[in-house]
Amino acid sequence: RSSAKLVAPLGCLGSRQKHTLPDLPYDYAALEPHINAEIMQLHHSKHHATYVNNLNVAEEKYKEALVKGDVTAQVSLQPALKFNGGGHINHSIFWTNLSPNGGGEPKGELMEAIKRDFGSFANFKEKLTAVSVGVQGSGWGWLGYNKEQGRLQVAACANQDPLQGTTGLIPLLGIDVWEHAYYLQYKNVRPDYLKAIWNVINWENVSSRYANCKK
User: Fold this and answer.
1) Which residues line the annotated binding site for Mn(2+)?
2) Domain harbouring 87, CATH code
3) pLDDT band at residue 6, thresholds of 50, 70 and 90?
4) Is residue 185 part of a domain?
5) DSSP symbol at 46
6) 73, 97, 121: which is the final residue of a domain?
7) Burial of 196 (0-12, 13-18, 19+ CB in 10 A)
8) pTM (2 decimals)?
9) Of the residues 17, 20, 77, 180, which has the maximum number of CB atoms within 10 A of its CB?
10) Which residues contact 76 (CB under 8 A, 6 or more apart)?
11) Which residues does the annotation place in the binding site?
12) What's the domain range around 112?
């Protein structure tokens, strides 16, 4: 599977360009044994694709409502825009946060920031894992950057709520804890999935996102 530049999620509503499903920069089986091919195929080609399709439909309806000046319709479409737009944003980040060559620990500026804000990498890992395990129902665990305070923070978001739109934190590393991300392999034992996913975290991508958000 060839790599492709991820489209910018949720572009201008006035644009006629539709959102598209980004290609993965690795094969569906590339993250095995930590995340199996069946999960990756369903997660990417079915779940993420559904968010993209539904987002395009919701945006078309929203543009029609804007043209008509139909405020009631605009308000009624907000949940669909938030859910499907968040699903597209979150997954577009998630795929780049994973790599068959991932795992280990970050280096350089990101590692120094983690030590500064969490005490150690082990403490950070434990905290993000705990936040992710603790999500009730479906949602995400995140490492984000608080630009105002100049520090890293961990946070959890419910459902497909996007981190930045929900908390103001700039997303660096997202861990999907919806059951569709792990159930076929790990059943209902979310902690086992979270233990495994650290083996495929793409720290180069996370470090790059951290460097960019500080500019």
Assistant:
1) 43, 91, 176, 180
2) 1.10.287.990
3) very low
4) yes
5) I
6) 97
7) middle
8) 0.90
9) 77
10) none
11) 43, 91, 176, 180
12) 108-214
